[in-house]
């Protein structure tokens, strides 16, 4: 009887800890779309010593070719009382780690085109057996992908109302596409 009550108590404690724990942190600033021509500013971010300000990037991209995601440079300046606390440039979307809220879908019209191409290639192969596999063009698969990815964690050393200025830029042609939308979300741990 004692072991059963201990087991129940343990399960309840684990459930409470799991439910109350927010691994990505509390949202400080909702999603703000980025424009490479503008500097975004979030003011009056109430942070305490020991908090960690976490910058998350959100990518919403359509018509990605072979899941090649454009990377961005995020220039940011964190200040307190008009004095710079941290100023740096970090890369956004360079890896595949720390991704959350991800949805990925291969575009349907691409699937249909692939099937048609496969059928055409089969009939062409029967008619032209001299063609080598090296001559076939690379298959391009287009997809839509939306996700959030942790960009950087900034430990806070002093209580106060902080200001964060930031701007993203990229040299990638696909980054400037009207089908690629990038945003920043601020959270604190």
Indicate the topology:
Blueprint: H1 2-20, E1 26-33, E2 40-47, E3 52-65, E4 72-80, E5 83-92, E6 99-106, H2 108-127, E7 142-155, E8 160-169, E9 180-188
Antiparallel strand pairs: 1-9, 2-8, 3-7, 3-9, 4-5, 4-8, 6-7
Helix content: 10-25%
- Please state the average pLDDT score: 81
> What is the SS-derived class?
alpha+beta
Overall body shape: flat
Task: State the distance separating the first and last CA atoms.
Answer: 40 Å
Uncertain regions spanning at least 5 consecutive residues? 15-20
The tally of helices reads 2
Tally of strands: 9
In words, what does this structure look like?
- This protein has 189 residues and is an alpha+beta fold.
- It has one domain (24-119, 138-188).
- 21% of the residues lie in helices and 48% in strands.
- It is built from 2 helices and 9 strands; from the N terminus they run H-E-E-E-E-E-E-H-E-E-E.
- It has helices at residues 2-20, 108-127; strands at residues 26-33, 40-47, 52-65, 72-80, 83-92, 99-106, 142-155, 160-169, 180-188.
- The strands form 2 sheets. Strands 1-9-3-7-6 form a 5-stranded antiparallel beta sheet.
- The radius of gyration is 24 Å and the shape is flat.
- The model is unreliable at 15-20 (pLDDT under 50).
